[in-house]
Amino acid sequence: MRTARPEQTGTSVRSAEVVIIGAGVIGASVAYHLAHKGCESVLVLERNREPGGGSTSRATGGFRAQFGSEINIRLSLLSREKLLRFEEDLGVHPGYLPYGYLFLASDGEQLDALRAAQDVQRAAGLKEAREVTPSEIEEINPAIRTDGLVGGIFCPTDGFIRPMEILRGYVEGAARLGVRFEYGVEGADYELDRSGRISTVRTSGGDVAAGEVVNAAGAWAAPVAREAGLDLPVEPLRRQAAVTYPFDLLPEEMPMTIFAEDGFHLRVRDGRVLILWPDEPDVADHFDQSVDDAWLGTVFEMARSRVPCLRHASIDRERCWAGLYTRWTHTHSDHPGSQKTNQTSHRNFYETHYLEPRTLVEKQWERHVVHRAEGSQQPTFAAPVAATPAEDVARRITRHKMPAKTPPSSCLASTTRIQRLRSRFLCSSAGTTSLIGPQVGRVETDE
User: Fold this and answer.
1) Residues contacting 403, CB < 8 A, separation 6+
2) Average pLDDT in the 138-160 region?
């Protein structure tokens, strides 16, 4: 950080009304919405050679409104409305598929915690989530071993998104509105004027005179803030993903399934099973994004124990990856994500950061750009709550392109997702389905 210096003459200094540090999904979204609201000079600076090189490209693509804090629930409900209009607004399909989130409890204490969160969810406007019994869990996801489970919570409108497609929509939309993106540019320092405002952002590509500065660097936000003399209480937290070889015993429509006991969860994407379990990384460098082989062995044993058909799967080591969440290093009386944007001691330096970066897309969009029904303070939902598990499942397989306030004309399909899940599971149990091994060609993904 440098203090003000005499104004130079004979030099050309770029300028922008708003400078955004970071071209991940948060930075691109902020840029698009500022331009959409009339800000005429927005510059996004990204140190990588393309957008999304930080956490966005390493996201597993889960979307949920099942949180334990009101602010996160409301932001997710608003985000869901944005997802439903995303292709219409930005011309890019966000990949939103409401296949559901299924939380599982193995004892009464865990189930009580899920129930308490559901009370908060209902008060905040999430009505679709419902408690399920072990027998209903078997219907929703028959691949899961249910012995030892006492119940759970299922929300059919949670599901999956394509983070890199959402990023592409925002980058292209922002560019159409005149936002400038500069890649391969490292931030170096800031210059403050006499009042303590940031007047200049110093970069490897030259100085930029800035009216306001937005820190959208995600897990790297603290070092970016430090250059401005600010102590931002966040740190990176490594999370790893184990990826199987192509595996046909579990379908893409399987809900994200999460064990409340230890956070173990899994989903299917592009024909492969993603297996995840949050641990506490034992690394010297908090920015380390390597995959721990010992962790891979542990998480795969957990997977085969809890999802028996995965005994027929194998891990594709080259496809496994790790990414960085952003973790707050101090506590609040309420959920740390309760402050969506925090203005720090520099009056024109803003930071966008959250407790749980896996839900970055869920929580970004501004309240004033989201549609609400006339006279209502709550966002509208894509479809009404179904009365039975079968109707829940049938509604989830209905494409998201329907108008946000108009339910589908028919909520039932001839073959439900449950039936497909059960048929695959039973076939695997009978040994009639051929196994998928390393000889199968690689499946390309866009995340």
Assistant:
1) none
2) 97
